[in-house]
Give the backbone structure.
Amino acid sequence: MSFRLASGGRIDRSRPLQFIFDGKSYSGFHGDTLASALLANGVRLVGRSFKYHRPRSILSAGSEEPNALVELRQGARREPNTRATTIELYDGLEASSQNRWPSLGFDLLSLTRPLVPFMGAGFYYKTFMWPKRFWEKLYEPLIRRAAGLGRAAGAADPDTYEKAYAFCDVLVIGGGAAGIAAALAAGRSGARVILCDESFEFGGRLVCERREINGEPADMWLASALAELRVLPDVRLMPRTTVFGVYDQGTYGALERVGDHLAEPLPHQPRQRYWQIVAKQAVLASGAIQRPLVFGGNDLPGVMLSAAVRTYLHRYGVAPGRRCVVATTCDDGWRTARDLLDAGVEVVAVVDSRKDLNQALPTGLAGRGPQILLGARVAAAAGGKAVRSVEVIDTSGRIRSLSCDLVAMSNGWNPVIHLTTHLGGKPVWDEARAAFLPPANLPQGLTVAGAAAGDFDLADAIRQGGAMGAAAASRCGFDARPLPKVSTDPEFSTASPIWNPPVVKGKAFVDFQNDVTASDVALAHREGFRSVEHLKRYTTLGMATDQGKTSNLAGHAMMASLRGESIAATGTTIFRPPYTPVAIGALAGHHRGRDFRPIRLTPSHEWAREQGAVFVEAGLWLRAQYFPQAGDRDWLDAVIREVDAVRSAVGVCDVSTLGKIDIQGADAAEFLERVYINGWKKLAVGKARYGLMLREDGFVMDDGTTSRLGEAHFVMTTTTANAVRVMQHLEFCHQALWPHLDVRMVSVTEQWAQFSIAGPHSRDVLRRVVDPGHDISNEAFPYLTARAITVGGGVEARLFRISFSGELAYELAVPAAFGDAAIRALMAAGAPYGIRPYGTEALGVMRIEKGHVAGNELNGQTTARDLGLERMMSRKKDFIGRLTAERPALLDASRPRFVGFRPVDRAQRLRAGAHFVASGRAATAENDEGFMTSVAYSPTLKHWIGLGLLQRGPERIGERLRYVDPLRDTAFDVEVCAPAFVDPNEERLRV
Amino acid sequence: VSELSAWRTVGPWDGIASPGHLGISGETGITISPRHDLALAYVITSDKDQAATAELLLQRLGIELPLKPKATSRGDLTLVWSGPSQWLAVSTQAGLSRRLAEALKGRAAITDQSDARAVLVLEGARVRDALAKGCPVDLHPRSFRSGDAAVTAIAGIGVQLWQAEESDALTVAVARSMAGSFWSWLTHSATEFGVEVLAPAKP
């Protein structure tokens, strides 16, 4: 049974398309939406409602659709809650109805309908409160199954998404008559213009109506305007693009559906693209959304917005029914009646609530069939899975029943002002136009034209659009002129909306998507939820994904009347972005999986990968964590091997990730004096020193070694984690605190590949890499020497004799391009000595064995004193954090301080995060005396060791404490010790 | 340096950018030229020394020091504004840092950054369209012309971007360690226009 008209519409009848809905095959045409194609095939029942599982069909022809929500596509591409009215039909499209079980036609949960009187607003709040323990196990799963709409795909999305930026002088939002006029006026002046429309075809209502401009079909005007826009060099037309949000400073969020109209996106193209558009000026020409009437059964399939009926007739060549009752409170309904008759559809009656109306409206209808019922209203629609009749109540109170299969309803229009309120503007009620209009405080640079401004006539839209487009371009410095005046066919757009349903039979829906009825609004009022914000939250009015596009005002107006106040006084809620739902995938764009955030690779990464290294994320960096070998039982085997190599022979580790900051200038030493707690002025050229810096609040910020390469030239190292923060801190100190100091700083982290060569044989290895002529003997190159050398036959390098492992050790820096060559050369040179690469695990083990603090201890809550480093704090100078570090609370003797721990039973494994209580005391928070910050299995000592923070720790060396790990339910005795477990006198460093 | 050395260098794009065609076949909207032939150095001066630095550069190297987000060129040398009193110097000649240090006589701090940045030169009709997928700077020819420079972030990666004087090509410089992630973003963004990747330019 086809409802396709014999001719007409903007569909391409030469391009038929096959599609599947609920497993059944249908055909449509290129240019159809899923909704129009379903209607053309006589399919009306497309889904079940959210709460009551009522049969639902298609209410509208646009993105405001609250009823026709379907699951689009299959498998990993399945998209729930997609509006059939916006789905562009493509060949092979598959969609299914949702929220029904077992089938759309027979839905078991709709059998709850007899219970409906008990399921009004607040039902869940009131019903499922007790017993409390039933909530998680019973009520919530039950409600989740019953309510909710479509199902998410549950599999990774196989398509790609993109983000993009665009810039323009004038952004025009909405490609209807007003928007096209605005784009033309602005574009002609040479301004950079972007014109977005959510549909795949520009024209807005122009392609949905039969209109005339300048005595010709409106299509001629539209075609010529679009042709001109297409050739203007700096005008960008963006169909299928919804501007969904307004943000500060002329930034607009937009979603371009690049490949949604295809089964799969084209090769190398994303499915969707999220645009951030920065516009100097914007013209909002978003049009208006028609308001439904509230009457019993107004959600029945076959009850449709009157303008949507015309859209299906004119744009898609579809008659949405065969026998129509037009129910209207405004002039719009009469246009629908006339267009239906012209399309050969029977119009049973035009029911207009107004008694007096423009005599031009009914002219010509007499004798063509429809009863003209003035001062009458539709009280209820009846039917099962589709409307079969309506009851009309007239002025005398007489009720008559009219048989029909289509109800075209109109209660006037709501300007689409969503974007005007995104930055907090309050809509303004206009009684004459019976609509909320844009707020006075519009987002900066935004003007509103046409129906969005409450001017519903076509001639006004074109005039205003042209004027505003021109004005916007002029404000950007272009010489722009308004468009010439146009004439149109006569138009009538008065409205006298009615807000209160007559005597209601059955459920009269206000919010279709969330199943909020007129009686829910009344209930909210009775129970005291009378502000529009309370009404919204109590009934969920306007809280569905359609954000109440077709429902908000109806609910608010009803509440106004219940409160006995004006709509203006009752007010309205405001809108938030996004205007229509935006997929998270689009917001993420390219940034998923490995591209979630940038990954930084070290200069020896490729070499380490060849060695089978296991990598670990350290901030953005990937670092070699350890180098497993065949036969290893677990990671610990590898780590023990690596530590043993360093302690007994030699190891090499890529430490390029540490922050490196080049500091030059006459005041460089003075600058270091101020940012570090220890002294720098006396550091000799060619020497390195460990430094500690505090934050302004006196807590430790970071540590590292800094070397003096020249009188006025230092290179600072930072921890990997704090590299950026320290650079920012230094820049701040220089620019804001001491701009008069002559200091020039730049990060050189990326320039240098740096390797730690550690172990008793490290010098032997280096001798084979460092060019002859550089004496690196213990005498010529003692501990803490830092000097420029050359390696590998002339490669400029820097050699630092510093040690984190506690062994004789060096750090060799070479330009990053030589990093790969350097690691290979070091490994070759070290082969006779049994050199092994070591990763961050072994690095960590050795620093714990040495009792060096690292990230776990530099946790933002420790002072130099807490960490046992108070002797570094110079008394001869001022430095950042000096005074604040001496606040009484930070000097409190009972503060947890840094010490070492070992299990009394050496077989016990320690875990970081465990707490300490004094022996014999209960493991309670009150008795807590500190916690373990770092632990490691010490291959050197052959048992677990730990570092931690303990109240009065240094005074308690030798004391036994209870180690308590409530997470793993373990507790045993540990012994407090000095933090340096290996070579406490630091003899190995200096050999 | 490298002539003397037996050590082989690895360029930032080695193993990342393979020469050849990417994306839509038969179209080349973008040509990517990875550059391993550039010497880079940071030039940092102070308010006090800036005028002297500019004068020395003009006198000795004949190049204008850009005081706004601009890139100036003279012969093999380009100076790209990088922030207040900071410039990235770019040259196809080795020994750039030494040359600058000698010319500037201590008025500016010179730091070799030749290995710190991974540089790509992008040419073609769709370069700006591809960059728009991550670059928050307006690159429309009306707004970003030859001689313009910007410091920005693309795909979470710090980027220096410039269009050399009298050139249509855009040059981007990113941190060497993030070359792989930048390449992933760039190729993802550019393949719909067709991409020709050239062999890295060697010194």
